[in-house]
Amino acid sequence: GFINLYAPEVNYLSDYYLAALRMIEYNLYPSFIITSSEAHHLRYTNFEYLLSTEYRLWENLIIEIYKTVNEALGRVRGQRMVEHGYPVCGVAQVVYDDGTVILINYNDVDYSSPYGLVKAGSYLVSGGDKS
After folding, report:
1. pLDDT per residue as tens digits for the range 39-85
2. Are 98 and 82 within 8 A, CB to CB?
3. Which residues 6+ apart lie within 8 Å of 4 measured at CB?
4. pTM, 2 dp
5. How far apart are CA 32 and CA 72, in angstroms?
């Protein structure tokens, strides 16, 4: 069977967009620790280590990160990852059951692949049943 996998809480990472690229590479969806109230209300509880959790502060980033990740992974939901590798240093390539290829470019320069141009710090989804 299949289960959904989630990345560590994004609100405790320092580079949100790099985290989103890694989620795309490893087929992970974002997660956040969110509260309705300000985090200082957690002081003197077992959760006082949670420093930034108020939904109002994170709402826009939650939407942005989820859209970025889902734009790539929505096409391969429920599929097996059949290949994972690095065609060149700093560029990951992931292939899924239906032939969908996702290229993730961690470099500071664009990468010209057989599937098209992958902008620096971005990704490209190609092929598969929904291309």
Report:
1. 787 788 777 777 888 889 889 999 999 999 999 999 998 899 999 99
2. no
3. 29
4. 0.86
5. 19
